[in-house]
């Protein structure tokens, strides 16, 4: 008998995936499979692939009276899962667009296809707890949160389903509790101002506070455009990954990246940004000219933080100033390997990809 012990976890993250409006028209015309045909090999290369799900997935419910009210079909979500995504952030200002019933159906539909969600729940306690994934020797906790002063966001309450609206002190308590049990803590957060290329100062302060609390990687979305990358106290902050599947038309709304890295017992390695250009809602590997435009945009947006990059092929990698690939050392190697006294979504999920 051969015993295979996995000492690394391959991780991919992208920004917003919309499954309505122009994307709905694309899928009805071309099919969901073709939507990801240019990038599914990258998505499937990871053990954990996460996106922000920018619409509820339901056939029933009561639409909220608001300017932009989205809804995706369950069969669309199944196609996203088959493309390789297995973790979905549902903490945003759209997953409640079809009311409580639509939100509950979204969670059920994610579970039905074999996926996992973070950032929401059937009640507040479930919504604020992390998703915990164990892959071989690597264990990670993924928190999802929305941080918008938006009356359209109906947060989860004690006995009401909904997304997790950020309560910093509460999140810090959860991070402090879970920190000894996991190798890495990841936060996916819906925040910031739409179409702004730079994060607000309060976002930077919040990101630093959460890193100080114990978060290793922060993945931002909501602005629908790329924002910069910061290395703060040897942790990674992605202020906004922009769109990934969307129907917006302007080039700066269509320029995006896929974030890819390898989580090991000793650190985060191969920290990569793959340029993507959205064409007719479809994320595609761009030609060299557009790829250079996207890479230069990321470099420029990150320069305010002094972040260094190096090119390899068509990708950018985080690097030291000397041009060497950057390895984020794991400062939490001696974690306790057994999880106890956990409830709700706080459970170990073994090897999410088949």
Judged by helices, strands and strand pairing, the structural class is: alpha/beta
- The CATH topology label is Purple Acid Phosphatase, chain A, domain 2
Kindly report how far apart the N and C termini lie.
21 Å
How many structurally independent domains?
1
CATH top-level class = Alpha Beta
Number of strands: 20
Helix content: 25-40%
Q: What would you call the shape?
A: globular
Describe what this molecule looks like in 3D.
With about 350 residues, this protein is an alpha/beta fold. The protein has a single domain, classed as Purple Acid Phosphatase, chain A, domain 2 (4-Layer Sandwich). Helices cover about 25% and strands about 30% of the residues. It has helices at about 20-30, 30-35, 40-45, 75-80, 100-115, 125-130, 170-180, 200-215, 250-255, 290-300, and strands at about 10-15, 50-55, 85-90, 115-120, 120, 130-135, 140-145, 160-165, 185-190, 215-220, 230, 235-240, 245, 255-265, 265-280, 280-285, 310, 315-320, 330, 350. Strands 1, 2, 3, 4, 13, 14, 15, 16, 17, 18 and 19 form an eleven-stranded mixed beta sheet that branches. It has a seven-stranded mixed beta sheet with strand order 11-12-10-9-7-6-20. The protein has a two-stranded antiparallel ribbon with strand order 5-8. Helix 4 (about 75-80) runs parallel beside helix 5. It is globular and about 55 Å long.
